[in-house]
Amino acid sequence: MRAEIIAIGDEIITGQRLDTNTQWLAERLTELGVDVAFHSTIGDHLADNVAVFRTAIDRVDVVVATGGLGPTADDLTRQSIAAAVGVDLVRDEASLTAIRQLFERRGRQMPERNAVQADFPAGASAIPNEHGTAPGIALRVVRAERGPCDVFAVPGVPAEMKPMWQQTVVPAIVAARGEARVIRHRRIKCFGVGESQLEAMLPDLIRRGREPSVGITVSDATITLRITAAGPDDAACFAAMEPTAATIYELLGTIAYGEEEDELESVDARLLAGQQQTVSVAEWATGGLVSEWLARAAPEQSVLAGGFVIGGLRQLEQLTGDTALRDAAPCSSAVATAAAEWVRRACEADFGIGVAAFPAASDGPDAKVYISIATPDRVRRLQFGCASHPAIRQSRTAKQALNALRLILLGNEPDPIG
To answer: What Pfam families does UniProt report for this protein, alphabetically (predicted)?
Structure first.
């Protein structure tokens, strides 16, 4: 069973309002085992609406539309569906009565214009709306030589749409679907290599048509592998995913650091708490991101002993008392090491992370950022390439620091400066 979601409204098509309904509906349809094939967004123009509904009814089994069910002249969903399937609008007296009663309960007289909200394409039924004046529309469209298409239209107001979805649309889709089927996802988070390199490490896993499927997405240098399986229930789906997940972990090793909502800082926080250790951070290039993320990941575990943002060499010299820093390069291992050793001692932490400044030419092929991680008995001096888009350079570097700490906590040493 394939579905299309249609979001309607000039405010959406022009970008004045974010379309969160489509995302929410796509997640709910997937949970029901329905393959979401298309998202369509259209403005308040009748001809465009009719064309989109005709196309959707022709190519999928379930159409879910949001918006356009109000009483004003730019609310065109009723007319659009009727025109798309070639039927007239018919007034439903029971729905009209329900709308009038809602106005009465709220101490208001119903404007006559609201009567159009009781008009439905011939053959359609009303989806009750307990929280608003716009009933939804449910219509089964018979198609020649194949199964029917079920069309559902609900208001764009989430507080009205969501109860209507749960109470009426879900049972109708489950009944039309027949045998039990759900679609579930499992997300594995990875860090430390590029997207192409990681794909090369997973031969055949990301092939189109594979079951279960494996998708790959990247955000701020974090790579997410999404395993998707369909089955009669959750247990069957996750059982089908397990061999693929095991293969991913076997092939990627420590590059795969967590699942679902895990971030590097949350993994570090768990490892530190489990080993009863703490970390402190003095950072220049990352502007406080490392300590901010750690504090947010473990607000009650006290794994972050302290966090400082370095504003320049003079400040670092005053903090450390090391006059040799006057002549140091801001982008150097010496600065990162001095910061790491000082912040660990000052905060009495088990680990101290120091991040030096970015080089002046941060986007060149040889551009490096220096990070040091100090413990009472040694200092790991590390360097990482920092050539990347300026929008992700800071966050990528912060993740490099967190990932290096993770590897140390796991007993897998990061590569030191040669």
So the answer is: CinA, CinA_KH, MoCF_biosynth
> Taking a C-beta distance cutoff of 8 angstroms, is the pair 372, 333 a contact?
yes
Sort 126 into a burial class: Cβ within 10 Å, 0-12 / 13-18 / 19+: middle
How far, in Å, CA of 59 to CA of 84, rounded? 13
Element (H, E) at 135: none
All residues at 6 or more sequence positions from 351 whose CB lies less than 8 Å from its CB, including other chains: 277, 278, 279, 280, 344, 373, 374, 375, 405, 408
Number of domains in the chain: 3
Question: Where among 120, 146, 177 does a domain terminate?
Answer: 177
| DSSP secondary structure letters along 101-128 | HHHHHTT-PPPGGGGGGGEEETT-EEE-
Among candidates 31, 62, 27, 61, which has minimal Cα distance to 233?
Answer: 31
pLDDT digits (tens, 9 = 90+) for 163-219: 999 999 999 999 988 787 888 999 999 999 888 889 889 988 888 778 899 999 988
Q: Please write the tens of the pLDDT for every residue from 227-239.
A: 999 899 899 999 9
Provide the pLDDT confidence category of residue 298 given band limits of 50, 70 and 90: confident
Residue 191 lies in domain: 182-259
Spatial neighbors of 325 by CB under 8 A, at least 6 apart, are 313, 316, 317, 334, 335, 338
Of 118, 47, 52, the C-alpha closest to 89 is 118
Match 């360097």 to its residue by tokens.
383
For residue 280 the two structure tokens come to 């402190």
Q: Tell me whether residue 418 is in a domain.
A: no
188 plus 58 within the same structural domain: no
Whether residues 172 and 187 fall in one domain = no
Using CA atoms, how far apart are residues 218 and 195, in angstroms rounded to an integer? 7
* Structural domain ending residue among the three candidates 259, 276, 293: 259
Tokens of 205: 């896993």
**C-alpha radius of gyration, the chain, whole number:** 29
Q: Are 354 and 330 in contact (CB under 8 A)?
A: no
User: Rounded to whole angstroms, what are the CA distances from 83 to 7, 96, 195?
Assistant: 18, 22, 47
Interior CA angle at 54 toward 51 and 55, to 5°?
Answer: 85
Examine the domain organization and report whether 273 and 381 are in the same domain. yes
- Scan for tokens 């397990």, then name that residue: 242
What pLDDT was estimated at residue 417?
A: 67
- CA-CA-CA-CA torsion sign (87, 89, 94, 95): positive
